[in-house]
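2024-03-11 09:14:02 DEBUG pipeline.ingest accepted 1 chain
2024-03-11 09:14:02 DEBUG pipeline.ingest length=482
2024-03-11 09:14:03 DEBUG pipeline.predict start
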Amino acid sequence: MIVSLLFSSFGLFAQIQQETCISNINLDQYKLSIEQSKKRNFINQNNNTYSIKLKPHIIRRSNGTGGLSQSELLASLTQLASIYIPIGITFEFCEANFIDDNEIFDELIAFSNEECTMGNQYRDPTAINVFYAPNAVGCLNFFPNCGNPNCSGTFPVNWAYFPSSENEWVVMNNSFATQDLTLSHEIGHFFNLLHTNQRNNIERVVREGSNANCNRFGDLLCDTNASPTLSPNAPLSNVNDKCQYIGTETDPLGEPYNSIKFGVSPQVNNIMHTGFRDSDLECRTRFTNGQINRMQASIKNDYGHLSATCENNCLDDIIITQNVTSGQIDIQEASNTIVAKNKIFSNATASYSAGLDITFKPNFDANLGSDFEASIKECSNAQRNLPIAINNKRVNYSFIKDGNNLIVYPNPSRGNITIEYPFSNLDSYQIELYNYLGSKMLEKSVSKSNNIVDLEILPNGIYFIKLFDKQSVITKEIIISK
């Protein structure tokens, strides 16, 4: 029995080395997910669009250094949006939370007690939580469930939890944050999608008739073709440079997966495919209709408690001690009070808002060249005109009104946008456009008669429009997806 268990573990490790994804490793969770999946297929006849809040968490060293950069985070989230927006699923990207902890920065083991403690401590229960870890790894010989692993070896990996789990988060190894649609793949698991070749070569190639078993095996979907699981002894690649499957493996009935008889072949371009070599994962580009329906059903049935926006998620009181260094962005919002004891360095961006009072201690400083904003407002964005003082000296600050007063459409946009500001008496106003890193990309004057802005030259991504109307600044997030 012991020998068999050790052999099984080694075989599993050899397979996972090629996959970089271990989201299907919890067998109890997996079986429950299959049973639930059978009940959740539906047709989205109304072409609904689902919006879900997503909260990124960036793991850094205890001194606040290291971790995923802002540009890498932007690239990761932009890539995710480009895949899901066309299929009716949009994400409201909230400001990143920084977790400064040397222990999990150095190593975060999948399904370990450290992971569960981290997830439960920092997760936002109203959002999809994505934890970006520099060294997220799987354990060679032991896959615990919130336990204490005794690993004889580790390997870099990513994972997510199915709806049947209470752990509503995704863990990304930073090395894969912007590669091969890996985040889109893991979010697919979060929305109850299995690997297209799930359950080790049991699914048959035939799609119809008495011999078909696609609704019971594989990923339980019949519009994703049967795919083999790559063995450690498989050829160097089963996929050519045109992203076509060229392997010779056969299904349990002896039918080649690359079947001339049935005119089907493994869908190498499917975002949920795995088991081929890592170099082939760049072929992943799309979901099938069956997968889209299953994800939308999961959002409707499993995740009704998730919010669609990032607003109104304030702590009562915040004490800020962490310095904001060059290139970093720090946005803090409290229902009642903020006490700031930190320094904001040149080329850093910080925005602090509280409902009642903001106090800046003597050691607070916003260096020349920093972009600092402080405001008194409710978490509901109801403006309150109260003074702010630093060491008993008044500072310049601007108020942000409710962004819903500013109308920008279409959003997402393929390039051109129309701006409307119906509650203003001004004939014209100034706008500025910033990327996710805080860099100004455009400055323009618009009016009620000339309110179309051409953004064709900008790359896909998340941007923020600021509109100035003499007494206030209104901010709106937009997404460009061509």
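2024-03-11 09:14:41 DEBUG pipeline.report The two ends are 56 Å apart (CA to CA).
2024-03-11 09:14:41 DEBUG pipeline.predict end
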